[in-house]
Amino acid sequence: MNVGDTAEVIRDYWSESGFTFPAMMQEKGEVSASFGVRAYPTNYLIGPDGKVIWRGVGFEEEVVRELLGLDS
Amino acid sequence: MNPVLLLGLLVGVQEPVLPTFPDVDPAVEALAAISAKIHDGEALHFSLETDFSIELREGEGLEALSRSSVEARLLKPMLGWVRIQGEGNSPGDGDKIDVTFVGDGKNFWLLDHARKQRIKTGRGFKNLEMFLPHFLPLRFWLEGPSSDEKTPWPSGAVEFAPPNKAFEGLFGLELAEDKGWKTLWLDDEGALKAFTWRTDPEKGRPIRVAMTGLDLSHPDEISPEDYEVEIPEGYQLIDLEARKSDSMTASLLTVGSMVPSVGFTDISGRTLTMEDFQGKTVFLNFWFYH
Hints:
The complex is a heterodimer of chains A (72) and B (290). With 72 residues, chain A is α+β, with helices and mostly antiparallel strands. Chain A is built from three helices and four strands.
């Protein structure tokens, strides 16, 4: 969920980086506001029922790997 | 003419050794010398009596705003203490200041002696910019080396300031910045004695700030107790870093709450909502791309 860039810039960045997950954009941070995001990066893990399982500010690879079950 | 000498000259012309004329602005050179002097010392002691004066409109003269004294013992960048005491002259509000900034090399503390608080402020003595001339060499001592610190002042950014009656006998080095000019007033030995600051009247409110009584020195002998500060007992601990991280998470959705039904556009232009992901576990990352 990117804030404030043009689609073209993001598309280029995404293809260069080889990311396989979808990128979404917001112009003025409207989605950030509805999720209460004030700092970047902020991450949410959302369950199949649409409920928040976990959220955190900043990026700690180990924490995210564990959450996503990538270490098992 | 002596023919032997003529021969010598001819040889010289064939293998010219041209003198080099360094393309250095004398003002830039003078500033570099001051910077080097402050950087090279093993420790920095400085004290200053500042009279913060302010000029609101061009030609109206300086109005005294506050007076303070600053004393600092910095052993290494980010290690040592800076004591500031002073008071403003705004009637009624009694804005006295009595604080000590302490750096232990890792953490920085602001001891607020009036409120009996010790405040953990994170890296850097940045708040000191309020009170001190934050020109290059001092930043080095207060905040540690940074990439900025290695950048020499470009020619044109430093000029000799016109003589000023208020700083008779001192010469001024005027540093141009995008926000205005800072002038360091130095004696003929290069010791910093005063500091003035003014903004560009075209760009903003013309403001001039004057600080006098600067005395920067390096001690001949270093004694460890000069750099120690005892935190008095009974001071309440306030951790600004922790508070900052609380403020970033306070507004987030709580665990267990439903995500908002909000629409967004993906990079190929499709509009999606959170409902489109129902039945799947979603890792949602909010980020900036610069």
